[in-house]
Amino acid sequence: MTSKLPDATDVLVIGAGQAGLAIGYWLRGAGASFVLLDGHRRVGDSWRERYDSLVLFSSRAYSALPGLPVPGEPAGYPTKDEIADYLEEYALVFDLPTVMNERVSSLEQTQSGFVAHTQGDARLGAVCVIVAAGPFQRPIIPAFAKKLSADVLQFDATTYRRPEQIPSGSVLVVGDGATGRQVSAELVRTHETLLCVGSTRLVVPQRFLGRDIIACFETTGALRDDKESLHGRFVQLFDPIPGWHLRRAALRRSGVKIVPRATDANSRTVVFANGRSKAVDAVIWAIGYHDDSSWLGVPRTVDPKGNYVDARGVSPVPGLFHIGRDWQNNRASALLTGVGNDARDIAAKALEFVRSSATAERAYGAGD
């Protein structure tokens, strides 16, 4: 590991989370220089900063990056802090060149590659860039959230930590994905809890016939079948949530009040899709995430909605790549157990680009 930012490198990896570390594993020893640049203070902080009670759906056996198992009982389920510490250890074990507490503020393309500028006023040149920002970047918060009174405390999946943050009274959780359901199941023990739901979500048991459900997904192909295959498209359509305790019926039995999608707000009141409304004391937005592309100043790399443009991790701009995208190739692409395979492919493409750039430069110099 390192704490000093070089002036130039062959491959700049933006992000030292699980995706960036997996890229680093495959770049290490390949002959090219590279550096992992991250705005967090420590490797693993993207996990440490999530809500306290978070436990992974996948067992330790299915939560590891290439080359290093997660410590502990393989069939057990790690906490988010275990994973954070594991990622920090991973960077140390493989001596990955990480520079922390340096967030990229802008990236521009130059004649010889790319130049990244950081919020700390540093400048780094690179032949190619791999964006390893991960799928959880900027929380989605609807515009009508601004209509809520300042008396209503608002959180999102990056700022909610524990029930003690929430004032006494009623709390509305908006979004019934895995995070929204887990947070609701936790909050109902101490608060009047309402959960906004949308379309029906498939919920499967955490374990099936004594096996981790992720192991079952692996066996059936649901984890790694290509996203364009018939099975892959089916899995994308239903995107199951592990944990029968998170079914709507189970949440209702625990006391969670299931309400329709939120459509508007006024002062302390949230309006639902069925026209009814409810006064609340706090709201947790758990709808999902946008790409945070405000720093990416390279033309053709961002769509009109601000999302990154890529095809299986390859940008339309030569020399710019992505890793850790949701469904980059399959269901496992954004998971600890699957990002390593995608990282191997993207690392190979990046190294080939570096080699071809060097060859072109030598050929140009020879004929000059």
What does this structure look like?
Strand 5 and strand 6 form a beta hairpin. The strands form six sheets. Strands 1, 2, 3, 4, 5, 6 and 21 form a seven-stranded mixed sheet that branches. This protein has a five-stranded parallel sheet with strand order 8-19-9-10-15. A three-stranded antiparallel sheet has the order 16-17-18, with no helix packed on it. The two termini are 39 Å apart. The longest helix has 28 residues, at 339-366. The chain has eight helices and 21 strands. Residues 364-368 have low confidence and may be disordered. It has helices at 18-27, 45-48, 80-93, 178-187, 213-220, 230-238, 248-254, 339-366; strands at 8-14, 34-37, 98-99, 104-110, 113-118, 123-131, 138-139, 153-156, 170-174, 192-196, 203-204, 207-208, 211-212, 241-242, 257-259, 262-266, 269-272, 277-279, 282-285, 289-290, 320-322. Helix 1 crosses helix 8. With 368 residues, it is an alpha/beta fold.
Summarize the structure.
This protein is α/β, with parallel strands linked by helices and 368 residues long. The protein is built from 8 helices and 21 strands. It has helices spanning 18-27, 45-48, 80-93, 178-187, 213-220, 230-238, 248-254, 339-366, and strands spanning 8-14, 34-37, 98-99, 104-110, 113-118, 123-131, 138-139, 153-156, 170-174, 192-196, 203-204, 207-208, 211-212, 241-242, 257-259, 262-266, 269-272, 277-279, 282-285, 289-290, 320-322.
